[in-house]
Design a protein that fits this description.
about 110 residues, alpha+beta, three-stranded antiparallel β-sheet
Length: about 110
């Protein structure tokens, strides 16, 4: 699966079918970010994982590459997440992978 969330409390791997939305968007400062909305089932699984991971780092992997490792402050029940992207090209390429329209760059 191209997207994986992992903490000491468990792992959740998501495929393009688990995402209701994947898009590049501006953050509040105008910088590129990737915004995801999970399907209902994936959102429930993510809420469960983040609920068990409060206080722990949550590693976020795209195509087995670590994107970020934020600490979980509270369960995330909305199924909505956003990640910063270094450039618009990177954001758009990542969205293509998450939508299943492009392969992972490393394989």
């Amino acid at each position: 699966e191209p997207l994986r969330f992992q903490s000491d409390a468990g792992t959740l791997a998501l495929s393009p079918g688990d995402l209701a939305l994947a898009q590049a968007a501006e953050d509040l400062n105008g910088a590129p970010q990737i915004v995801l909305r999970m399907s209902a089932g994936a959102a429930r699984a993510f809420a469960d994982l983040t609920g068990r991971s409060v206080g722990l780092p949550l590693r976020v992997y795209l195509c087995d590459n670590l994107l970020m490792e934020p600490r979980v402050g509270a369960p995330i029940a909305s199924g909505m997440v956003g990640f910063p992207a270094p450039t618009w090209d990177h954001a758009l390429a990542t969205v293509a992978v998450l939508r299943g329209k492009a392969p992972c760059p490393n394989g």
